[in-house]
Amino acid sequence: MIFSQMAKFPEDKIPFLLKGKKEKNNQKDLIIREGGRHTHMVSLAGFYRHKGYSSGQIFALLDTANSISFDGKILPDDEVEDIADGCSKYQTLYEEYTVNLDDVEEKPMECVIAPYISRYDTNMLEGEPGAGKSTLLAELAACITTGKEFCGIKPSVVGDVLFFAIEDNLGTVFKARARLQGADFKRIDVVDGF
């Protein structure tokens, strides 16, 4: 892999990145012992790969760190490139949460209450305090769990509701409002304690 087009990592950050010392400007602290530069660069590459950096970003960081040598020794460019490229085979902490959009199959949206409440997505409601969010959510929960109309729209399915209780007390606010709307409590699960 060729990274010749990559930008240099900011040189003012290198002393901190090389050793993590509090005394960032003390050159003696930046000397890496004989034979330790490769090991140190691999460790640095592993740390940033774990944080989610790409091999190209890691190469830019390592290349800059390698060029700032206070002991007169640097690694050959191909060795730095091999270290950066080698670390890319390891999964990062963030990869399980990301996907390339090119790999995503496009599908039509299915709604429980068209076009407002999507069936397979997270649906959020926000508004000013006192605007009626909890009352609206209680009515939506009642409509979805019983099949009754919501604002003249019949739900496409009768099903379960997962509610995240962030603001209101479940016993004194949400349950009372859901009861008044006729919700089926057996079909409502609540995640409480945020």
Give a written overview of the molecule.
The protein is mainly α and 194 residues long. The protein has two domains: 11-97, no CATH class; 111-191, no CATH class. It has six helices and four strands. The protein has helices at 14-19, 37-50, 55-67, 77-87, 133-146, 170-181; strands spanning 111-113, 117-118, 161-164, 188-191. The strands form two sheets. Strands 1-2 form a two-stranded antiparallel ribbon. Strands 3-4 form a two-stranded parallel sheet.
Integer tally of domains: 2
In which order are the strands of the major sheet placed? 1-2
Low-confidence stretches: 1-10, 13-31
Output the structural class.
mainly alpha
Order of helices and strands: HHHHEEHEHE
What is the number of strand segments?
A: 4
Overall residue-averaged pLDDT value? 77
Separation of the first and last Cα atoms: 45 Å
What spatial form do the alpha-carbon principal axes imply? elongated
Query: Helicity range of the residues?
Result: 25-40%
Number of helices: 6
Beta-strand content: 5-15%
Supply Rg.
28 Å
Largest sheet: 2 strands, antiparallel
